[in-house]
């Protein structure tokens, strides 16, 4: 049996002392809900991304549902999406009464294939939803060029991509609707929470209402000047999906370290790629020079994947598979797609977090190189 102290975890969040101290101050402040710390985080994250607006919400899934909701697509409208994503992303489509139409992925990146999207979009398509797999940016110019010519909006799921760069600009600044997750394992871990980065003033104003039951002004807004006003309007049917100041405080403190943390994640991935180059039965994913991954995942493609997973587990090394395709779940329909099948049946995610030492990475590499 592998001793606990020698185990290498797949994920392990690092919450900085600065975040812990800031949370203590927020807890003592008397304001824990949607309030000043949320506003401060929204402004800082928008500035970081180069986005016009940022709207803090309760999770990445909530961000996706709100992004879809604000498009006002009629029930049954088709949305072209990737099946190679965490299932909650495509569940958001079902919650909105929309019909997922699954596009294939590029078998060497895991990202949605623009050629497959081009074949699927048509008169019944209301939107396209893409996910930057593992933090590696999709082919955004090709996708936006294809869709803008047809007047079809695109939602970018950036849950893996906080800090990623595509052709000189941060992911989150290219289109109208981008969603983020701050769940514990993400690059910007706050325990939970999410955000939308948006360009449209109208989307921004409406999302702020929708995240809190459709109420036209929050309790914090109604407390300005220390004279609480109890009355409020409700403009439409909304949700309870707002961020709170506890999560916002953690996210704001963690944001100051995001670029530094992503550099270290990139160093870990580079060490894996160097050590695993040329290993028989193993493929590394493509990395193009015109984009910088946020390196949320370090995924490799292995022949006899399950044997490799078992081999690493025997040596105390945790791994993951990201992801079983959505069309494999009974809530969805759709045929198996060749790129997706080639990718996910070989995919294995190696440990990647800020607690990894170079020695940990070398141990993973050596275990793989010994064979499986």
Summarize the entry for a quick read:
This protein has 372 residues and is an alpha/beta fold.
Describe it for me?
- With 372 residues, this protein is of the alpha/beta class.
- It folds into 2 domains: 17-255, Aspartate Aminotransferase, domain 2 (3-Layer(aba) Sandwich), CATH 3.40.640.10; 258-369, Aspartate Aminotransferase, domain 1 (Alpha-Beta Complex).
- Helices cover 35% and strands 14% of the residues.
- Strand 4, helix 6 and strand 5 (154-157) form a beta-alpha-beta unit.
- Helix 3 packs parallel to helix 4.
- The longest helix has 19 residues, at 258-276.
- The protein starts with 16 loop residues before the first helix and ends with a helix.
Task: Furnish the topology, listing elements before pairings.
Elements: H1 17-29, H2 36-49, E1 53-57, H3 60-69, E2 78-81, H4 87-95, E3 99-102, H5 114-120, E4 125-131, H6 140-148, E5 154-157, E6 165-166, E7 169-170, E8 177-181, E9 194-198, H7 201-210, H8 245-255, H9 258-276, E10 282-284, E11 291-292, E12 298-302, H10 305-314, H11 338-344, E13 347-350, H12 358-369
Parallel strand pairs: 2-3, 2-4, 4-5, 5-8
Antiparallel strand pairs: 1-9, 6-7, 6-11, 8-9, 10-12, 12-13
Helix pairs in contact: 1-8, 2-8, 3-4, 9-12
């Amino acid at each position: 049996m592998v001793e606990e102290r020698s185990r290498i975890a797949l994920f392990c969040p690092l919450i900085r002392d600065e975040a812990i101290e800031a949370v203590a101050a927020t807890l003592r402040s008397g304001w824990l809900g949607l309030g000043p710390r949320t506003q401060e985080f929204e402004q800082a994250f928008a500035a970081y991304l180069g986005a016009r607006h940022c709207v803090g919400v309760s999770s990445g899934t909530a961000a996706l549902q709100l992004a879809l909701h604000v498009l006002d697509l009629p029930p049954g409208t088709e949305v072209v999406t990737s099946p190679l994503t965490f299932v909650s992303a495509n569940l958001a489509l079902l919650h909105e009464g929309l019909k997922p139409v699954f596009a294939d992925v590029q078998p060497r990146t895991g990202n949605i294939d623009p050629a497959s999207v081009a074949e699927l979009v048509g008169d019944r398509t209301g939107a396209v939803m893409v996910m930057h797999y593992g933090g590696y940016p999709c082919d955004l110019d090709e996708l936006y060029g294809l869709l803008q010519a047809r007047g079809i909006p695109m939602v970018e799921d950036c849950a893996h991509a906080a800090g990623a760069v595509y052709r000189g600009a941060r992911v989150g600044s290219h289109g109208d609707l981008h969603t983020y997750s701050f769940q514990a394992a993400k690059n910007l871990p706050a325990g939970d929470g999410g955000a939308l980065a948006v360009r449209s003033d109208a989307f921004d104003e409406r999302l702020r209402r929708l995240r809190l039951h459709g109420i036209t002004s929050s309790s914090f807004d109604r407390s300005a000047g220390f004279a609480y006003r109890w009355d409020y309007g409700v403009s439409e049917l909304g949700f309870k999906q707002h961020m709170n100041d506890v999560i916002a405080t953690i996210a704001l403190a963690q944001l100051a370290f995001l670029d530094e943390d992503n550099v270290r994640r990139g160093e870990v991935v580079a060490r894996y790629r160097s050590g695993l180059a040329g290993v028989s039965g193993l493929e590394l994913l493509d990395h193009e020079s015109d984009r910088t991954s946020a390196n949320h995942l370090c995924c490799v493609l292995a022949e006899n994947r399950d044997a490799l997973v078992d081999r690493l587990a025997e040596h105390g090394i945790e791994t993951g598979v990201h992801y079983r395709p959505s069309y494999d779940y009974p809530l969805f329909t759709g045929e198996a797609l060749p790129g997706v099948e080639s990718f996910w049946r070989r995919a294995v995610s190696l440990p990647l977090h800020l607690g990894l030492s170079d020695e940990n990475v070398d141990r993973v590499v050596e275990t793989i190189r010994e064979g499986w």
